[in-house]
Structure formats: C-alpha cells, structure tokens
Design goal:
With 406 residues, the protein is mostly helical. 85% of the residues lie in helices and 0% in strands. The chain has 13 helices and no strands.
Length: 406
C-alpha cells in the first residue's frame, strides 16, 4: 500500500467517525434521555439540529476557510471532533451536550467537502471518483457498523462510553492524517477547479441531489412503520431487514466506486432511476413481505450510487473551487434528508407509509427526469456545434474550389 492510498484510508476512517457521531444519539435515545433526565423528543433534536446546522453552514465555512491548506484544515476539524466527542462523553446536562453536538456539526460541515476533494487530489484524474467513493464508504460503514456497535456499547457500559470510544477513534484518525497527508499540494490529481465548469450544470446537480435524497428519506425515515404495519413483519425482524439494507448499501458503494469514473452523469441517472423503481414499488407492493424486503435492498443499493455520482459530478461541473462546490452538494444532501423527513411526516398521517413512499417516488422521478433532460439538451448542443463546424468547413471548401477555378 502506497502513502496516497493509506492517506485515503485515513480519511475514510475519519468519515466513519463523523458518520457514527451524526446518528449515534438515535440508538442511544432512551439512555441519554434517562441519563440527563430529559424528554426523548429533545434528544431527537440532537440529530435534527445537527443535520440542519451542516446544511446551513457548509458553504459559508468552506468559503471562509478557502485559503487554508487542506491538510491544516483537516487536522483542525479532526481535532475539533476529538474534543467535541470527549465533551459529549462528560456532558452533565442537555444544553452542554447540545453545545458539544453543535461543535461536532461545525467540524462535520467542513470535513466532508474538504476530505472528499483532498482524497480525489491524492490520485490520478482517472481514479478520482473511486477515491471519493472510498471516503464515502467510511460513512456507509458508520450506518451499518458504527451506530449499531455504539448502541450495543451504550447498552452495556452506558451512553457516555460510546462517545468516549468514538473520541479515541477520532484521535487515531487525526494521528493518521497528520502522519500520512503531506503538507502542500494534495497530490498529482489536485482538483482546485472543476474539469468541465458549468454553473448551469452544477445548479442542476444541487437541485437533483436535494430532490433525489428527499425522495429516499420521505420513506426511509418511516420505513419501520411500513415494514411492521403494511408488510406485516414482527419487530424482531427489523434488525435483520435493516442489516439487509446495510449490506446492499455496501454492495452499491463497491459498484459505484468501480464505475463512477467511466461516467458520473450516467451513474447519477441510473441511480435515480433505480431509486424511483424502489420507492414506487414500495408504494405499490409494500404490503407483500417478500417484495418489501427486495425493494428495501434495492433502495440500499441505489443510494450510494447517487451520493458517489453527486460528488464526482460536482468535481466535474464546479464553476469555481471544488471544495466549495462539494460543500454545496453536501448541504443539498442534508436538505434532502430533512426535507424528505418533513414530506414523509406530512403524508404519513393521511396516506400511511406507502403514501410516503409514493411521494418519495415522485420526487425521485422528477430528479431522474431532470438528469435525462440535461443529457438530451447536451446532445442537441453537441449536434448543433458539429453542424456549425461542418457548415464553416463546407464554406471554406467551396471558397477554395471557386478560388482554384478562377
């Protein structure tokens, strides 16, 4: 393993830490509420507020830190993460824990866009998407392994122990980044600007990301309700079903990493089409337990493709600095999570979880149609340019022939 590959691995470990920290209070909800003598709803706000903070401050903070070397910035946010998780572990009250979560969210807002661009800059241009996918893999493993492991540890040794262990992992990631990420340029594939800059294409990407992710989380936020009430699964089956979704998520990430550099826009469109099928399928066939399990796995397989393609496409179309562009798509992703939960929450009392799946499917279809429309417009533009060039060449040829005749 060369140094660049090891450095990407260190960034993936850091991503695992941030991904675990974001959702860990969900698994520890009751334990934290009891330990701090507060209402579980207020503990739930520790997750909601975290996501809203990331969505709001990502772009401003990355712009503010734009002139700082990426290595220095990453060391700073990882040090802040380690401090914030220790602070969480020793918090004596709800507001103290909320302050620690706010610091973690601020670090998170800067980490993701800078880490993904830094990872891409460590490798040759033809492997940028794969490097970004590897970092995203750390975030995916956080959902599949990190949060369940943290929940188990919290149940055995108290919720503070889960945050304490997470702070140790964060310190390990910090030490690895310090040791492996060289000062100065990030590497041979440094990506300070987009390879195909286009403000229109980038703004379309931001919109598509928010719609697509919003579609997924319109259902996924309430998927346990669908599985137990509509599909008829017992509560004991939820763990294995969510593990199936997590395994499909990892498989989707491996696939996305293998193909993303061949065509990020094609992967984006294909992932959205797959998610549309899964969501609309849940709306139509969610009452069948076998169909629901298959469609849940399909949903897990499709989302990493969307996330990976989103990041690779941002590095292509960024009209300015790619770190700022990556912050914009990260914010759109978090807006999609929160907005999808809101849409699903509004539909759920009226039409149930399958109604939420239908609403999410329509959002995903709209996003997919926008990607198809962009490709169609792009082909028309290429055809028009080719026709114009052909016309000029023909005019020059005819003028040359007339000159020879004279």
């Amino acid at each position: 393993m060369n140094r660049a590959t090891a450095a990407v691995g260190a960034l993936a470990l850091a991503a695992f830490c941030f991904g675990t920290a974001e959702s860990l209070p969900i698994g520890l909800l009751g334990l934290i509420a009891e330990g701090l003598d507060t209402d579980p709803t207020r503990v739930g706000l520790l997750v909601t507020g975290y996501g809203l903070t990331v969505a709001v401050v990502s772009v401003p903070l990355v712009k503010l830190a734009g002139r700082m070397p990426r290595r220095t910035l990453l060391i700073g946010v990882l040090a802040a993460f380690a401090l914030a998780t220790v602070w969480s572990a020793v918090a004596t009250g709800y507001w103290t824990l909320l302050g620690a979560r706010l610091l973690t969210a601020l670090a998170h807002a800067v980490f993701w866009p800078v880490a993904v661009v830094a990872a891409a800059g460590l490798v040759a241009p033809g492997r940028r998407g794969r490097a970004a996918a590897f970092v995203f893999g750390g975030g995916s493993l956080a959902v599949v392994l990190g949060v369940p492991a943290g929940t188990w540890l919290g149940q055995q040794a108290g919720w503070r122990a889960a945050f304490a262990v997470l702070s140790v992992l964060g310190a390990v990631a910090l030490a690895a980044v310090v040791a492996l990420l060289r000062p100065g340029a990030t590497g041979p594939g440094d990506v300070a600007a987009g390879t195909e800059p286009s403000r229109r294409a980038y703004l379309l990407l931001v919109t598509v990301t928010a719609l697509g992710v919003g579609g997924v989380f319109s259902l996924f936020t309430y998927v346990t309700d669908l599985l137990t009430r509509d599909s008829g699964y017992p509560d004991a089956a939820l763990g294995p079903l969510l593990a199936l979704n997590g395994a499909a998520d990892i498989a989707g990430l491996v696939f996305a990493g293998a193909v993303v550099d061949r065509g990020p826009r094609a992967l984006l469109g294909g992932s959205l089409a797959l998610l549309s099928v899964a969501l609309l399928g849940m709306a139509a066939f969610g009452a069948d337990p076998v169909a629901a399990a298959v469609l849940l796995a399909l949903l897990g397989f499709g989302l990493p493709g969307l996330a990976t393609a989103m990041q690779a496409r941002a590095m292509q179309t960024a009209p300015g600095d790619t770190a700022v562009a990556s912050a914009g798509t990260s914010a759109a992703f978090n807006v999609g999570i929160g907005g999808g939960a809101l849409v699903g929450g509004l539909v759920l009392p009226v039409a149930g979880a399958r109604g939420a799946a239908l609403a999410g499917g329509l959002l995903a279809v709209a996003a997919s149609a926008m990607v198809v429309g962009e490709r169609a417009l792009g082909r028309r533009g290429v055809a028009a340019r080719r026709a114009a060039v052909g016309s000029v060449i023909e005019s020059v040829r005819q003028g040359t022939v007339r000159g020879q005749d004279q």
